[in-house]
Amino acid sequence: MNYLAHFHLAAVVARQGGYDDEALLVGALLGDYIKGPLRGDWPAEWEVGIRLHRRIDALTDGHPLVSECLAGFPSEFRRYGGIALDVCFDHFLLDRWSDHALDNAPTAAQFAGECYRVLGAKREHFPVAAQRQLAFLTEHNVLCILRDWTMAAQMLARISRRLKRQNPLRDCAAVLDAQRPAIARCFDQLYPRLLEQLPQEFAH
User: Fold this and answer.
1) Total-model pTM
2) Of 28, 36, 32, 34, whose CA–CA distance to 11 is shortest?
3) Residue 181: is it exposed, middle or buried by C-beta count within 10 angstroms (0-12/13-18/19+)?
4) Given a cut of 90, is residue 102 above it in pLDDT?
5) What is the number of domains present in the chain?
6) Residue 148 belongs to what domain range?
C-alpha cells in the first residue's frame, strides 16, 4: 500500500482501537524509515503505528490476491510490480473514497490536508529522509493527485529514477492500462479485508 492507504488504515485502526489518531499517522509515515526492532526509542503509539505499517506491508505483499495480480504482469515488470500496485491502490482508494470514508466522512482532500497538517507539525522529530519525503508529499499533494489514473505512471517514472538498478517503471503506462481491471479487482477484494482484520489485530 502507498501513503494514502497507509494513512487511511492508520486512522481506521486508531478510531476503532482507541489510539491517538495523530500518533498512528506519524507511525504510518515513519514505517518506511525506521528499521529494525522497536525498543522504545520513539513514543509508544508512534511505534504502534510503525508496527501497523509493517503489518500492512506484510499482509499485502504476501497475499494470494496480490500474487495472482502480479502474475498477469509481463515478466520484466514482476520484480517491480509490487511498487506499481502500491501506487495504483492509492488511485483506487481515491476513486472509491466514499465507500471507505471515516465516520466523520471527510472528503479525501480534507483527509489529506489533515495528514499534511499533523505530520508537518511534528516533522522536526522525524529522520531526515522522512522529512524530505513529507515535504515532497505536501508540495505535490501526492495524497490526492493519484485520483487521475495517468498520474500513476508519472509517479512510477519518478520512482524509477530513484532506484539504483535499471528497471522498467519509467515506461509502464501501457502495462498499467492493460492491467487496470485486474488491479481494480485485487484492490476491491483486498482492501475491505484489511479494514476488517487490522482493527481486530491492533485492538487494545
Assistant:
1) 0.95
2) 28
3) exposed
4) no
5) 1
6) 3-201
